[in-house]
Amino acid sequence: MNCSREQGRRSEGLIMRVLRIFTFVLMALFFINHQLEADAVKIQFHAWGGDPRINRYIAAEAEAFKKLMGIEVQHIKIDDLPPVIKKVQSDKASGNLTKGTIDVVWLNGENFATMKKSGLLAGPLLSKIENRKYMNLTDPQFLNDFSTVTEGFEVPWGRAQFVFIWDRKRTPLAPQTATELLAYAKANPGRITYVRPPQFHGTTFLKQLLLELSTSSNLQKACTPDTTSSASAPLWKFLDELHPFLWRKAQTFPASTQVLHQMLMDQQLLMSMSFNPLEVDGLILKKELPAGAYATTFKKGGIANVHFLAIPFNSQKQQAALQWINHLTSPEAQVRKADVANWGDPTVLDSAKVPQGIKLPALSLRGPAQNEPHACWMEYIEREWQRRYGVAG
Known about the structure:
The chain is of the alpha/beta class. It has helices spanning about 1-40, 50-70, 80-95, 110-115, 140-145, 180-185, 200-215, 225-240, 255-265, 280-285, 320-330, 330-340, 375-390; strands at about 40-50, 70-80, 105, 145, 150, 155-160, 165, 270-275, 295, 300-310, 370.
């Protein structure tokens, strides 16, 4: 009898020890799981946040990327890149060479030129991106960004072309030259305008006029006081004549193309603009532009460029950043990006190189592609425009 009781006590003790061990293991696993979640890789993607369609696309790709790779992407929505560049410059000046918190940036043009010249970029990167095999790496627009040689320090992400947007019912024949645009404005006072620089659509409108009006051969070269003054003189003469016929007589300017699109939709304006030749189709689908909206360039063409992704030199998560860039340049992500129901941003991939079964939308430029002026022109035009016309709100 006593023996049976002793065996029972031993069995109970063994069971309790097993339960305690099991509970300890469960608690340890729970702690480890939460610690792994806390330590999960997160990267910061600094990208323009001014378009809800683009923001939704980035959010969807970030969600897909997290499921695939377990890496979280935080989209830091910015208005402009210079404050981000200043942060990286400050890091470099203070000796923060490996603990940077900015992991990927969306950029091109003047911003790329500044970061490359100042040694603020990791790289070359392009050779580390697996999906480069689907690109035509000899494309001149991949090799030069606003006349700055890329040398693989940025990875192509999408294409753009500056276009004007009209409503066919009210403007069946759009102006084909700057001279015709001026005549159209005079015939329809208060019915056209442009986005206030330095918002990039406004600055690009000015650069488009510069290419149209200037006879200078120096626009793709570095600026000098002599060349900027003489080459830009026709632009300022044109704007002086145009401004009295703009919306509110150019005393104020819309802050974004979203405002322009809505004013075109509401029939306050006759013209909007975009840096995406496919955007008009997507906005018609969403009923954010009239059904008869269409996009055009000047007869000589429209400014076309490529926008890129890059990694700051001191990002402490460069491997994860490379994986994010590789994801965004995958055939699947590029197809989704080019869909006008999503973003409608033209692909950088070569349709002849992608796997069978992947159908990339054809590149739909609305006219001849014009090269960007040298990056220095952006800063000069914005500064000079502000000096001449910036008192207006």
